[in-house]
Write a structure and sequence with these properties.
Pfam family, one: HTH_18
Subcellular location: Cell envelope
Number of strands: 21
Number of helices: 22
Oligomer: single chain
Family: Belongs to the bacterial solute-binding protein 8 family.
Radius of gyration: 27 Å
Helix content: 40-55%
Distance between the termini: 63 Å
CATH architecture of the largest domain: 3-Layer(aba) Sandwich
Main location: other
Strand content: 15-25%
CATH superfamily of the largest domain: Nitrogenase molybdenum iron protein domain
Keywords: Signal, Transcription, Transcription regulation, Transport
Structural class: alpha/beta
CATH class of the largest domain: Alpha Beta
Largest sheet: 7 strands, antiparallel
Number of domains: 4
Shape: flat
Length: 548
């Protein structure tokens, strides 16, 4: 045991002892699954995101998060099926020091900050340093490995105990507290006196500081926030204007209508009909791709350069859509503010990010990632149902034509598998999800290997042993693209393994390498057509090669 000693406030010294390291299984990706944590646990999220409920508290977890959970906790998965979640659990026990006669005794460990759990963001450098450690899995019994494992555990704990600067509360923090109050209670009567009291300063001082920080007086800020929420209601519901006015904090419907026109330039009645000419910003290339196909050209789109599909890059350039470059899993709030959008639209974002975006413009997020459903959702919002029906017919015809070309594969029940090689392990595409999963196994009616049919998540954990058991006839391999990490080492390990060499697909030269930027991030209207072409050409090319 490594004598690394920790201490908690007002408590005796203690040490941590590593007990287990294991990847998150597919059970961490099914909504409704419950996990009983019987040992102190550190969870590292290495890809994707999810919504969990930890001991009754909803928490968003995402790439780079370290979540510490005390023993005897309960974690329920709220959402995660198609959010690409992957990660690891590190279990440990804690022991306190006594004298030499009594030795060590079990110590009741608590997270440094919070109730029964704590979440911190790991730095890219730290994540890079632990990549090899996580990929190695369980340690052997050698003294060096045991010491290395303990050092790894203490490195994680150090991130929890990193002291934050304890500055005295500032005026700016008081203003931010008043903003949080407005966002929580915008549907109620709010006065400047209330807000100044919440900020802890005089009304005059509050108004001046608020305007300096936010660029407008507090009650104007409140009015704009209410109008943004009203716009969302108009786009997502069929409620009447007067009902929406009350819901967002305006008692007088006529005053609401006047203020609405001041902010938007049109009356509430005419707002929806002007969407097509407003400054729309998409936080997802897939959404932007679909909008363009419907005839709605967004002003800008958030992209991660290494994950931007080539067809999307060309499409955005053709339509003069500005590319706002951001790191993977990051929403660049300042860049979005600079664009002054009139509507923000996109995929799943955290509640914290959503709160920040909701101060900039009305925001529509949490829409589906399923292309067909998304197309209809966007068509309903922008009144483009005729265009959506035409696109859907074209896509159905494309799928039907592909199914005819692949008839022999479908009838023979030849098994098709998509394997993802990641910096931290391997996963396979499940047969019950959206996107390419639905395309392959529902629309094209291709067959998933029987041992993989239980996986309900989008991408499910896959060991080399499970790959060997699945033994597909055809294998599409995605070498996962991520910023700061490389899947090359795990790719090498896979191809050098005896299990890989014994696969039917490998022996028969039926391996096809696919691109993350297209198959995962580029699966819009155009992208799906390209994926269909790639599937058909890959399989038919193989048949042609065999015939020769």
């Amino acid at each position: 045991m490594l004598n690394g000693v920790q201490s908690q406030p007002n408590q005796r010294k203690w040490i941590a002892q590593w007990e287990s390291t294991k990847p998150l299984t597919d059970k961490w990706m099914y909504a409704g699954e419950t996990h009983n944590i019987t040992i102190n646990t550190l969870i590292i999220i290495t890809d994707g995101q999810a919504m969990w409920n930890i001991n009754g508290n909803n928490i968003h977890v995402a790439f780079g998060n370290l979540i510490a959970v005390e023993e005897n906790s309960v974690i329920e998965v709220v959402e995660g099926g198609n959010l690409d979640l992957a990660g690891w659990q590190i279990g440990f026990d804690a022991y306190s020091f006594f004298d030499k006669e009594r030795g060590l005794m079990k110590f009741e460990w608590h997270v440094p900050v919070g109730d029964t759990y704590q979440k911190v963001q790991l730095t890219g450098g730290f994540l890079s340093s632990i990549s090899d450690r996580l990929s190695e899995g369980l340690p052997d019994d050698s003294s060096k490995t045991v010491v290395d494992t303990q050092l790894f555990l203490y490195g994680l704990l150090k991130n929890l105990y990193h002291k934050q600067a304890s500055e005295q509360q500032t005026i700016e923090e008081g203003v931010m507290r008043s903003i949080a109050y407005m966002q929580e209670h915008y549907d109620e009567v709010i006065t400047r006196a209330q807000l100044a009291q919440i900020a802890g300063i005089s009304q005059w001082h509050f108004s001046r500081k608020f305007s300096e920080i936010c660029g407008k007086p507090p009650l104007d800020y409140l009015a704009s926030y209410r109008i943004y929420r009203a716009q969302e209601e108009m786009l997502l519901t069929s409620a009447k204007s007067q009902d929406i006015a009350k819901k967002v904090g305006f008692e007088d419907a006529h005053y609401f209508s006047r203020r609405f026109k001041q902010f938007t330039g049109v009356s509430p009645r005419n707002y929806v009909h002007t969407l097509h000419r407003r400054n729309v910003l998409s936080i997802s290339p897939q959404y932007a791709e679909n909008l363009i196909q419907l005839g709605i050209i967004p002003r800008a789109v958030i992209v991660t350069p290494i994950l931007l599909a080539q067809h999307q890059r060309l499409l955005f350039k053709q339509h003069n859509v500005e590319l706002l470059e951001a790191k993977q899993f990051v929403i660049p709030i300042e860049l979005i503010q600079q664009q002054k959008p009139e509507l923000i639209i996109g995929h799943f974002v955290t509640e914290d990010i959503k709160k920040k975006l909701r101060t900039i413009a009305p925001i529509l997020t949490g829409l589906t990632t399923d292309k067909d459903i998304l197309l209809n959702q966007l068509a309903a919002i922008f009144d483009k149902q005729e265009e959506a029906n035409k696109i859907q017919t074209q896509m159905d015809n494309k799928v039907n034509a592909a199914r005819i070309e692949l008839k022999s594969y479908i009838q023979s029940a030849a098994t098709i598998m998509v394997l993802r090689v990641e910096p931290f392990g391997y996963r396979y595409l499940g047969g019950h999800s959206s996107g390419v999963s639905q395309l392959l196994y529902t629309k094209l009616e291709l067959s998933l290997p029987e041992p993989l049919k239980a996986g309900e998540a989008w991408f499910n954990p896959c060991s080399i042993e499970l790959l060997s058991i699945a033994n597909p006839d055809y294998l599409f391999v995605e070498k996962r693209v991520m910023e700061n990490f490389s899947a090359e080492e795990n790719m090498r390990k896979l191809m050098e393994s005896s299990q890989w060499k014994s696969l039917k697909a490998v022996k028969n030269n039926r391996i096809f390498y696919i691109d993350t930027s297209l198959w995962v991030d580029g699966n819009g209207v155009i992208g799906q057509a390209l994926i269909i072409d790639e599937i058909v050409s890959s399989l038919l090319r193989h048949t042609s090669d065999e015939a020769q």
